[in-house]
Amino acid sequence: MRNLSLIPAVRRLLRWQALVVVVAVCIAYALGGEPAARSALLGGLTAFLPNIYFALRAGVTRYDKTAKEIVRSFYIGESVKLVLTALMFWAVLRLPDISFMPLIATFVAVLTVFRFALLDNKPLKNRDHGY
């Protein structure tokens, strides 16, 4: 059986994204009530769920993969992620009582987690694998 596990950095990134969704929903609820919170949740999920797919597709360590297989996983994962995101936006925007600002703000906030993750410049050996 192959040894499959989610790369620790990817797992950490997904946790941060989930936390951003929760915080954004709470802020939207405080500022705009239930319709704003629902819109924020849907915006967050529109970014977060396709990222989970991508993480499972490309962020799994399998030590017998060739470089070509890794690059192919990234291309396929990113392509499917973009299609899923577009389909989710299409479905969400068809719902009644959607507030655009909380929806798009949470979507952007979840995607911004990637940018902040790039600022984390601690050595990899001290963070994830312990060697």
| Percentage of β-strand residues | under 5%
In N-to-C order, the SSE pattern is EHEHHH
Helix count equals 4
Percent of residues in helices comes to over 70%
How many strands appear in the DSSP assignment? 2
What's the number of structural domains? 1
Distance between the termini: 25 Å
| Biggest sheet strand line-up | 1-2
Describe this structure in words.
With 131 residues, the chain is mainly α. It has helices at 8-58, 67-93, 100-119, 124-129, and strands at residues 5-6, 60-61. A two-stranded antiparallel ribbon has the order 1-2. α1 (8-58) crosses α2 (67-93) and α1 packs across α3. The chain starts with a strand and ends with a helix.
Keywords:
two-stranded antiparallel sheet, 2 strands, 131 residues
In short:
The protein is mostly helical. The chain has one domain. 79% of the residues lie in helices and 3% in strands.
Please render the helix and strand layout as text:
Blueprint: E1 5-6, H1 8-58, E2 60-61, H2 67-93, H3 100-119, H4 124-129
